[in-house]
């Protein structure tokens, strides 16, 4: 079963990321330890794209170090 956008948002919030808003269906998440903001697009119930899942995984790993 593919990841949903809501799962990615929850994972980012659990890792300490803060949603600084966005335009339309885009959300920008920032974290003090991560150099770039992570942008997630799509409605919460949409299936997440493979590149979004990968970006969230890398960002969460970077926030832990």
Q: Indicate the low-confidence ranges by residue numbers.
A: none
**Series of secondary-structure elements, N-terminal to C-terminal:** HEEEH
Main beta sheet: 3 strands, antiparallel
- Total count of helical runs of at least 4 residues: 2
Radius of gyration: 11 Å
Distance between the termini: 29 Å
Report strand %. 15-25%
Number-wise, the strands total 3
- Strand line-up across the major sheet: 1-2-3
Question: Based on helices, strands and strand pairing, what is the structural class?
Answer: alpha+beta
Mean pLDDT comes to 95
Q: Quick one: overall form?
A: globular
Helix content: 25-40%
What descriptive keywords fit this protein?
65 residues; alpha+beta; 3 strands; 38% helix
